[in-house]
Amino acid sequence: MNTLDPNWIVGFVDGNGHFGFSNDNKTFYFRISLNQRSVNVLYAIKSFFKCGSVQKVGKNQREYKVSSKKHLENIIVPFFQKCALKTSKKKSFEIFVKKFNPTLNLKFVENLEFNLYWFLGFIDAKGCFVCSLINRTIRPQFIISLNEIDKSILDKIQQNLNLGVRYKRKNGVEVFQLSSNQDMCHFAKQILLTKGFKDRLKTSKRIRARKWCKIVFLIEQKKHKTIEGFNAIKKFLKNNFS
Prior knowledge:
Elements: H1 6-16, E1 17-21, E2 28-35, H2 39-49, E3 53-56, E4 61-66, H3 69-82, H4 89-100, H5 116-126, E5 127-134, E6 137-146, H6 151-161, E7 165-168, E8 174-178, H7 181-192, H8 205-220, H9 227-240
Antiparallel strand pairs: 1-2, 2-4, 3-4, 5-6, 6-8, 7-8
GO cellular component, one term: mitochondrion
Domain Homing endonuclease LAGLIDADG: 9-98, 120-216
GO molecular function: endonuclease activity
């Protein structure tokens, strides 16, 4: 795997990172957990920061963790000051730093522009590629669901993409969703895939995303309008999205 873009790391941590400390404020750590299928991403993050370790946690989980106070102070904390988090994870980071070093004057380098690599990292952490068959209608969708505290992030994603819809579920969860095939085709071609149709996502989620793109493109080509095409997509759905 090529060297990770710093913005991708920020986006991924915004969705899947954790800053923690013990009750007695003596032990501090930064960690990222992933399914073992994406362990190569954790090693790439370890290579980027040049510190920490990757360990097995549970049957199918792997974890990248930095607990050395020296590495936290000299590498992790400065990185997230220079490359500020965008979600409520930023507040968690601030609390972490105040506990870790109360004398440190936190100053962030804010980047308010929408960054593709940040978004890709966030998709790798929080994006959901789904496809269902309802009343003989093939329905691919892309969904990001977040707690209400982070609803502004979903608003910014929609505004910058100029695609999709935003809504709030009855349980209070905030959602950004793509369901229009025109929107999904644009999203697949401009965000998920390069001009050479190579994957931009880093984790094992890219495999499901590519299968999702295949269905979106088949619908764009109206393959689902023929009996043969519909049955082929139906079989593909059963094997990959059941």
